[in-house]
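Posting this for the archive.
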Amino acid sequence: MFGTRHVIVPFELQVKSYLDESVVQERICEVHKALLRGRLPFGARAAQPMTLETYGFKHDKKEYNVYWDVRKGLIPIVGAARETGLY
């Protein structure tokens, strides 16, 4: 169905409100390193990759909830479109 394979990497960085900002930044750096080790292209078009920094972490609840709502809608749609047994 799709000519180019795309990977959606949903993840949640759970941060307790009592954590120091430096601890939060340390955890964000760990996630960035893990994503970069995967050597996947970032962006909507594999032929025009973006840098990881283009997609910064969102700290505003209203802003990041938009992305989680999109994720909740995309996962079932993508799953339903996949042919069974291919992956």
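The radius of gyration is 15 Å. The first helix runs from residue 21 to 37.
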